[in-house]
Amino acid sequence: MKKIFIPLVALTVLIACNGGGKKDEGKDDKKEVTDDPSDNPDYQKGLNLIAGNDCLTCHKVDEKLTGPAYREVANKYAGADTAIAYLSSKIISGGSGVWGPTMMTPHPALAKEDAEAMAKYILLLKK
Asked: Of 7, 66, 106, 124, which one has the greatest count of Cβ atoms within 10 A?
């Protein structure tokens, strides 16, 4: 009886766990695409960097403060081939005139890679 019972249990577990070596036909193993940017690793990294710097003193996601809302920036620059390079250089160098006379504070100590991650996060906010 043991000789039959143990292989039967093992086979049942194998089939239940879909370990029989067969893939379900018609199922796609790719991750489901959503409109939620928070699943993107660039989103998480950029969000953490922005939260750890003084960015939220002047910017909000959907509301203008001293500077433009991040969503406004995303809508203006999304799709431009040079958007990440341009925005990351603005984050590091600062500037004025694009969104009015108020000057954006430069962040020269910020690493280029971090500024690029922040720019990617902002661009992911496009609606």
From this structure: 124
**Which domains does the chain carry?**
36-127 (1.10.760.10)
Rounded-to-integer distance, Cα 16 and Cα 105, Å: 59
pTM beyond 0.90: the answer is: no
CA 21 – CA 32 distance, rounded (Å) = 23
What count of Cα atoms within 13 Å lies in the side-chain half-sphere of residue 119? 24
pLDDT tens digits for range 78-105: 999 999 999 999 999 999 999 999 999 9
Distance CA 41, CA 70 (A): 18
pLDDT digits (tens, 9 = 90+) for 10-34: 555 556 555 445 444 544 555 555 5
**DSSP bridge pairs for 65:** none
